[in-house]
Amino acid sequence: MRKICTFRMDDGRPCRMPPRHGRPFCWTHDPENAEAAAEARRLGGMRRRRERSYGAAFAFEGIDSVSAIKRLVEIAITDAFMLENSVARCRILIAGAGIAAKLLEHGDHEERIAALEAAVGGPSETTPTIAFPDPDETDETDETDEEAA
Q1: N or C: which end of the chain has fewer CB within 10 A?
Q2: Largest CA distance in the chain
């Protein structure tokens, strides 16, 4: 038979969590952990409130754009800074930094393309839509130019 915590709820029901090794109570109800358990409950409540406020404060609606992905990475990194210093926290921060670097690179490329297009008057209608057009196909503008010459 499985051992359970000896703590009784206000209505008399047992806790049903497994007790700590050599102790009659689970981690939550052990008097030795009262301070740590209270802090865990406080942080859990803060997390739930924070999750509700994230939706309103950040207006996170998905990851369908670069700016939405950037926002998600910012949220994850901010949350990671609140974690206890650990290997997992370091991994999160390094991964977030790598993603942020790629997003910055992508943004830089978009800015450069926009600047180049502005310098040449934007994407023109004569710009081929195919990267490597078929040389056998003649363009109507080429025939008109040849006839005029």
Answers
A1: N
A2: 101
Three-class SS state of 99: helix
Q: If we measure between CA atoms, which residue out of 2, 22, 134 comes closest to residue 14?
A: 2
Report how far Cα 51 is from the mean position of its chain's Cα atoms.
14
Structure tokens at 81: 């800074």
pTM of the model: 0.40
What is the tens place of the pLDDT at every residue in 87-143? Answer: 999 999 999 999 989 988 888 888 888 888 888 886 655 555 555 555 565 555 555
**The pair of three-digit structure tokens given for residue 64, joined into one six-digit string:** 């369908």
What is the amino acid identity at position 134?
D
Q: What radius of gyration, in Å, describes the C-alpha atoms of the chain?
A: 30
CB of 26 closer than 8 Å to CB of 18: yes
DSSP string, 113-136: HHHHHHHTTSS-TTS-SSSS--TT
